[in-house]
What we know:
ten-stranded mixed sheet, 2 domains, 18% strand, alpha/beta, Spore Coat Polysaccharide Biosynthesis Protein SpsA, Chain A
Amino acid sequence: MLDQVCSIIVAAYNEENNIRQCLDCLVNQTYRNIEVIIVDDGSIDQTSSIIHTYIQKYSYIKYFYQENSGASAARKNGLNRVKGDFITFLDCDDEFHLDTVEKAMKEFEHTGIDIVLFDLHESIDATNKNFKKFDYFTHKKIIDGKDAFINCIGQWGVHGSGIYRKDIFVKANNRYLKENSQNFVNNDEVVTKLSFYYADKIKLSDAVYLYKFNVNSVTRKINKNYVFILENALIFEEICKKEGVVFNYNQVLFDDVRYVYHILKKWHADLPNKKIWVDILKKCLKFIWYNKLQTLSFKNKLRFCRMYIYLNIVEYYGK
């Protein structure tokens, strides 16, 4: 597979402090048959100017601008422009080792491999000097795609950072788009899980991806749209139902609702769209109510009641 083009999609929004390091690690990859697709999501700082200095030197870097629409929309834009049969994604504040792409691409020489996952190292603090390895649900190096999917329905038993055969990723993306065309939070997580479902085999590699701590990341700030992760949870359930995947969805959705509920309580005073949060949370609780509330434990039934009462209080005093 060392003669195949690997397309690397980079979504960038106001990344003037990170984009140089990101592009340096790409232009210095030991694997030379790459194309870099950068989608600028409406940056208003020096991101564009910095990128253009690289474009002048490296013909395989392609730059596209879009009005600010979010990272998921930027990745989808990039996906529509790739020419390679293998694709991967790199966040501007993260980093590949210089041999990451080469090591990962070599793994596709194994028969039936559709996805090669990187060796994910996660930073444990803001210094970005100390990292811990991702803890997989298995010690196997080659995983059946359905097994990976099942172990990512609730908690992530494997991560999603790696190189994908484009046809697998596009198939998953198109399946998601059949149910939803909106730019909800974490669209890419649903597509990643569906990619696992459609994959034959997934290979764990020693190609390093450094997931860095970024204090300015939107995931660490108050995000008024974060509640829409629950809309994706409902979409994911609908897709699984149509695909014939059976699992205790009420429990998984309940765990997601509890997580978002606690975020609402934490951010309550600063959220400008509290009504939307309340409406979506209540929508999910009603879904659970009408889909066998009795499957929840007694403790979770009590939690269910407390959440519903709290949401009604917020709704009443928020008018």
